[in-house]
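Structure ticket #2291
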Amino acid sequence: MAAERFVQRLGEQIGKEFAASQQYIANAVYYDAQTLPRLAAFFYAQAVEERNHALMMVQYLLDVDAEVAIPGVEAPETGFDTIAAPVELALAQEKQVSDQIVALMGVARDEGDYLSEQFLQWFLKEQVEEVSTMSSLLSVVQRSAQAPMFVEDYLAREHSAESEDPTAPPVAGGAL
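Resolution: structure written out below.
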């Protein structure tokens, strides 16, 4: 089944995905407190997406009959000085996750674990989208720092109808 080294590293990534989910909840709470409901909703939805990424990884490990360990996570950052700070953090986080997924792909390839390599293909595509989305959002937030309602309008126009990706791996526990 899956290479032991890959299983261990994917287990670590599960923790990183759950940590990203927690960070996005913290971002959402910050924007909720600032009465920016669309920014808050955007990050609440991102939190669910990151949680689901972790659960996709859990399901994969279950599917390949590997041991699943759920690591703990550190508390997220909650103090932000500017309206752009949570998005700056999110962009840095998405770039870091991209690097982590690429490194996981390298482990699968080094181990000759072609099934795990194939599993990660979707995550590579997803990370391109995530970095692009956060980069665009950061540009809008930076330009609109003095008038954050413009960001709310942007999100209403550009991110109002997110659809599910039928090519996404299954989530452990179903789509909760």
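Closing remark: The longest helix spans residues 4-33.
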